[in-house]
Amino acid sequence: MQRYGPGVALIVVDVQNDFVDPNGSLSVRGGKDVVPRVNREIDAAIGSGAIAFYTQDWHPESTPHFAKDGGTWPVHCVADTWGAEFAPSLRVDLDAAIIRKGTNGEDGYSGFTMRDPVTGETRPTGLEQVLRDAGVTDVVVCGLATDYCVNATAIDAARLGFATTVVSEACAAVNLQPGDEDRAIEAMRDAGVSVATTTRR
Ligand code: VGL
Ligand code: ZN
Question: Which residue among 27, 99, 144 has the greatest number of ligand 1 atoms within 8 angstroms of its CB, and so is best to mutate?
Fold first, then answer.
């Protein structure tokens, strides 16, 4: 069975310097090794008539998402800075749409929904509609980080009724707590996401 073809959307999550580069402010262990695997997924997707989307974490300088403003994270992926740029080794398909998350200070873990970090309220980003309009039935997710944005994006995709696969080898986790990656994989499976560990062609 082939993973890609017409009706499939590959969502490449947050392959950005702050997560990928060892000097990035929220560097994910193994992040650099993931980029060539992500590139292989992009090649396979585009070569088979699937469409590719890229998400970017894209924060203002101050947001309750950041520890300095009362949240969890070191400052990362601030709009229009080096840390928010795609990793230079990522293959970026110029025709593909880019979805920026967190632009108004929301947490924005999922490519599909934005969550107000103060009220907890969630709103759609518009990605679902774009996929429906393009006739997409199946979603494949890869990128960073397994335990946050990949997890949230894949679970939302499954909840919205897309047949959803995560390519776990083309993902890497933050692991704020030991075991977060395994728990994220389990949560995705529980939500009906297939977890693919090898690249099938
Ligand atoms: C992410 C933590 C904070 C992610 C984004 O892209 O997974 N993780 N912001
Ligand atoms: Zn973030």
Answer: 144
Ligand 1 near 149 CB (within 6 A): yes
Tally of residues, the chain: 201
Does the pTM of the predicted model rise above 0.90? yes
Domain boundaries, the chain: 8-196
Q: How many helices and strands in the chain, by DSSP H and E?
A: 5, 8
**Which one of 107, 149, 156, 171 is the catalytic residue?**
149
SS3 3: coil
The per-residue pLDDT for range 3-33, each reduced to its tens digit, is 999 999 999 999 999 999 999 999 999 999 9
User: In a 3-state reduction of DSSP, which class is residue 14?
Assistant: coil
- List residues, by chain if needed, whose CB lies under 5 Å from ion ligand 2: 57
Report the topology of domain 8-196: Rossmann fold (3.40.50)
